[in-house]
Amino acid sequence: MRSSEDFRIAVFVDRCEGTLDPLLDEEMITYISGLPQVVFCDQDENLSSPQGLEKLTSRLTTGQADRAVIVGGSPRVYEQSFRRLNLETPLNPYMFLVANVREQVAWAIHDTERAREKAKAIIAKTIKETQFLSPIGREKVEIPKEALVIGGSIVGIRAALALAEANIRVILLTRAKDIGGKAIQLAHFYDRPDDVSSWFMEQVERVKNHPKIDVKTSAELKGIEGYLGNYRVTLRGPLGKGEVVKGSAVLLASGYDVVPNTEGIFGHRCFIFPPQMEAMLRDGGESLKDEKGKVIKTVTFILDLVNETIKIDSANAVKNALLLKRDHGCMVYVVCRDLKVSLDGMEKQYREAREMGVIFIKYDNPPRFSLVNGQINVEVGEVSTRMMGEEYTVSILSDLVVMSEQFVPSRDNEMLAHLLDIPLPQEGYLMDDNPQFTQVRANRRGVFLAGGCRYPQPLDEALVEAEAAASGVTELLSRGLYEYDLAVAEIDPGKCAVCLTCFRVCPHSAIVVEPYAEKNIYSTGGYEGDFKWRAARVLPTQCYGCGICVSSCPTKAITLKHLTDAEISLQLGA
Amino acid sequence: MRDRNALIIGGGIAGVTVALELAEMGISSTIVERESRLGGQAGVFACKASEKCNKCFACVVDNQIEEVARRPQVTIMTESTLGGVSGEQGRFKAEIQSNGRRMLLDASALIITTGVDFFDAKRKPEYGYGIFQNVITAHDLDEMLRSKGGVHRPSDGGVPSKIAFFQCVGSRDETIGHLWCSKVCCAYALRFMRTIRHGNPEIQTSFFYIDIQPLGRSFESLLQSCRQDEGMRLIRSLPSKIYGQGRSTHLRMRFIDPPSGEIVEEEFDLVVLSIGMTPRQDAGRIANVLQIPTNEEGFYGSPPENSGVFLSGACKGPRDIGSSMVDAKATAQKIVQYLGGI
Fold it and tell me: I need a labelling partner for A231 at 20 to 30 A (CA). Which of A281, A300, A437, B285 fits?
């Protein structure tokens, strides 16, 4: 490192449109100009404006300074301009520091004297801190326009088609023998007037015949490794030899599972689940008959015993109630805690159903079931019949009772979270990159989520999510290149004790362990030739530069390139 | 490959997100916004965190607006409206009125993200909005939280002791012809209650509803925490009318008490009306200009396929910030497909 005497620091004072005038008066400017190594101190009314930035750039072209300090507002504003937007200045974007005297002084301290004192301290410290700056480069990796979609449900199908139509090659993997998933059993859908089976079949055919989509069925995942631009999935093959498929990004559409409750009375043939109801409505003629050929007259839907905060069951029940009433002349009851109508057009269908004579009953206490002469008696306290503190119970003798299957996280989620090293929260659904509210993106760069693996959602919403996740992939792949700053963590392999702390704490799965260290300070030698020590390594494409690994490394082997320990110590006043 | 520029009508959260997504894919766009600022209805919400983040997405809107202003691929025209459109299928010429001037813009795709209006609570006079000072809309409450940092009674500035939230004001209501659920208001009001109870545990809150509507992934935990909170009553009943009491700050209301089935009267000193979403007043005009179908409710239905016209966000029907953003991303994908892919 050069002696600090050699630095030539340019200072730019941002007056933030006059709001900092009382603080940044003539005396303060004189003070700044007089600080060691400051070669000049410029002022601007609004430094983050295009004009302000232009002036700053031309001032730096003279080459008088080799680093710069901005005195003004929040670093965020300036950093965005310099780093993210590649503002062309003669200095490397990491040769700037910001002294934030707006949020930290002007807005926080009312006493003029104390404010001036603190501002001076912050500015002096920032100027001192510039000694630790060094240029940070930019790298690029090629990203081929190929993606992997995992899950052959209608969500995976929709995502694969959306990607292929945007010119991305897709490999669609499903563990099932054929693509289609659960939704394909639907004969009707609440917001489409016609039979939807043909629409489903058309989607399936389009995927199978699309020149840019390769469908691999019966694909059991064995391993996933790699990073943005180069994800590799190993499939379990016969004889243990697995095929490897590649993609630049991974889109997970693995869906959710359902658990039907058939214990006790619920094992009786009069209790059925939504898929059977769909099948009856699809295959049945004018009058619906049960297994024994008896005509079904009364059907009761029971909602909210499970899946209380999921809209799917309500939507299906209302849709099927309408069909049962209109096409089959059945008497239909829908028993629920809260009817979910928060789907486009559902309130109208709810009304239509009531006008046609479907009876909706709302309960606070769960209904009771008993077997009466081969029918199921559903007893439920209707909340609106309460009077004078008494509740009246309604009895519904039903030929069929449609129960809900409980929606649970897919058993694949655990495997996927493990293979991809992405977090799996307690409730068992895959986690989106929460702090940024990105919803369809996981916190490993290049991994996206859609549909039921996030949480069970109605088909129309899940299909929108499939396309949204596809847009995330398309964005990353659109340039064919991924450019990134090397403002990331870096591990000194010689100091790494392979304790795996960094590997465990990294929230973005950016750390791998590889044999690449030339030496290891904990060893006394004894190895020769081209032997390499195992050490942790940061994958720069995956690193978000958060610094968690740096702070937890017990051997201090990791450095954050754009914010070194020395800088932090100085900021803390050490 | 065709020219690739998109014209986005409406600079709310959906329009801004479409522009950002397109910019990432290398497609430039122009946002035409009627108001003087971007963000639309979602741009004025306050953070609704309690002891933890309640995922209201208010901060995300601020972020997106800040972000879009920095993109060189995005041109922003505020105080501008769409006059008319000529040309077709990927070669549109749109007439824009901007600050009293008229100009013609070429566009290869048109995206309508005009959003919604909020229900005018004065149309339900029985609730006394505009008559009683202490009857406010959820939006007024949002503004109060955002600008003043806390909740108070408009009549005297005091901290209220009992707040009632009325759901479905302007939604699910045949008397005003609104046969739709606005989807967001249950979660919106419950988050309000969490954040108010967190800041002022002495305030008692009541939530009057028809059916509780879930919203998004984290709704179950939100509902759980509300049910566990003893200072929050969830009452399945909608009060019929609000009565004032002379100069008193207190309001009296009648409703059916669900546990007993009896009609009861209770006093509150602040009533918050959860106003629903309605199609924009000028929705019909834009539908005419662009020949987009509208459904019976007045929201937009899908434009013909391959017409080069796309819809996104709440103009298709009520949506919250999160789903509007997901929808905007999906729309961006449809646009890039239409414009020949990447």
Answer: A437
